[in-house]
Amino acid sequence: MKIFKGLLTSVFFALTSLSYAIEEPVTLTSGQVVGTTLESGVQAFLGIPFAAPPVGDLRWRAPQPPTPWQGVRQASNQPPACMQRGNRYMSEDCLYLNVWTKAESAEANLPVMVWIHGGGWTSGANSIPIYNGEQFALNEVVLISVNYRMNAFGWMAHPALSAESPEGVSGNYGILDHIAALEWVRDNVAGFGGDPNNVTIFGESAGGGSVYSLLATPLAKGLFHKAISQSTWITSYNVTNLSSHNGMTTSAEARGEEAINAKLDELGVSGTDQLENMRDLTAAQLMEMNLGIFGVSLIVDGHIFPKSPAEIFAEGSHNAVPLIAGVNDGEGLFFIRPGSTFETVEEQRAARVEEFGEHAGNLLDMYVAGSDEDVFNIEVDYNTDSWFARPTREILNAMARTNEDSYMYLFTRNLGNPEERSPHAMELMYVFNTLPSGTSDEDWEIAKLMNDYWVEFAKSGTPNNNELPQWPVYDIEQETHQIIGVEVKQGAQFRTQELNELDRYFDDRYNSAR
Question: Is 164 a catalytic residue?
Answer without folding.
Answer: no
